[in-house]
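Exercise (ungraded).
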Amino acid sequence: NAGVTQTPKFQVLKTGQSMTLQCAQDMNHNSMYWYRQDPGMGLRLIYYSASEGTTDKGEVPNGYNVSRLNKREFSLRLESAAPSQTSVYFCASRQSTGSEQFFGPGTRLTVL
Amino acid sequence: QKEVEQNSGPLSVPEGAIASLNCTYSDRGSQSFFWYRQYSGKSPELIMFIYSNGDKEDGRFTAQLNKASQYVSLLIRDSQPSDSATYLCAVNNPTGGTSYGKLTFGQGTILTVHP
């Protein structure tokens, strides 16, 4: 049981490049989330998916898109990366009837 | 005013002391409250959650909630060097409904426990 997995662990992009961050969970959770974490800022919600087939914007959605591919997978796409998107990205999942969010190991993204 | 605000750190306590971490929130409709611990370079992990006014104890950790004052705290008794981490307070966002589980996080407090 791997929990929440994220790929890649590290990535360096040039301004304007695109990439997709992958997230998968094997806990049969309904809800999934993408956060970014910047120094001194805590975690900020980018997008979330309450259940398969639905996605909604969080606090900081600009510059990102998401896809809930199936119940297990929730991807985050940067279409045209900007230096302001340099951050650590965490994916999380939650069983709708529970309370705890389980976090993946994170992706450390640098945009030059 | 930030939606969720934590006491500014870093906080440094000697081994064996009580560490007190505080968090205030702005939305009176908030329903559930979480404390996560995050070691440097790692992902957050849940250590406590609380829904009702009062205290909730789990081992060396006690969460305290006062909804009237919009205040939640975490006490760590008999602090150990292994407790050195960033502690994140998170509040359930009621506008999304409890079924969505949207959380708003504070900025975190860095705790250092020195031998």
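Further reading is listed at the end of the chapter. For now, observe: Residues 24 and 69 of chain B are 8 Å apart (CA to CA). Chain B has no helices and eleven strands.
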